[in-house]
Write the structure tokens for this entry.
Amino acid sequence: MKILKTISILSVAVITGCTQVDTGTTAVKRSWGDVGKQTYTSQLVFYNPLSTDILTYNTKDQSKLYKSTPLQTQDQMTTHIDVRVQYNIIPTSIPMIASKIGNEKQLDDVVIDANFYSILRESAKNIKMVNDLFESTVQSKLQQDLTNKMRLALKDYGVNVKSVLISNIVLPSYLQDSIKASKVREQEIATQKAQLEKTKIDQQQKIVIAQAEAEAAKQKAIAIKELADANAYKIQVENKAISNSTTKYIQIQAIEALKEMSKDPSAKIYALGNNINNVLPILNMQGEKK
């Protein structure tokens, strides 16, 4: 009897399995190829190992790195970039994933990886030249394009794509040398343009200064001429005033002399000139003959 009980206990132990489903992990049972609809998380799960297995999936945020991935642009040049896909598996979609795709590794290989490489090739066709990848606008556009297309492609498989980021763009060495030489030449051209612009500005400044100096000299000459004209006019006025004063003085003196001569009955007076104001009397000092 004891032997039968022991065999019964051992039989139950053999046909009963137990597994712990951790936090951030979701599991389903698959019995004879059929996947159950019930999901398990953060708990112990009992099952019959002879007919059932447990499929577990990481439902936490995940980051998958595709290192040194080749990318060919429209100019048929190939570069290598690192691409990081950030995503999570939707817990409620796990029964469908287990039934139609398989375990988590199969989900990675068949769904995520396959769609990633296909979408990357298609997105690269929108880039004209390989060196365009060094432009921040091109990088941002590529990242956004990859994110949108991956999100759309994987949502029906129970995968939520949050973002796709690119980094570490590596070109073939000959292209790197060519780009460096081009950058150096662009800097030289920019420097030459700046120097020419500076020379142009300096010449314009000299022209403006010369024009200002010429205008100043012109205004100075005008001022000197005006001052000279004013001085000449002043001298003319002063000379005229002196002349008028002298004439009037002589006239006054002549009138006084004429008064004195008029007292002498023997004096004869002669007048020269046709302007009464400027008549100068001339005295004849000879007396009458007796």
In short: The longest helix spans residues 173-261. The CA atoms of residues 27 and 55 lie 5 Å apart.
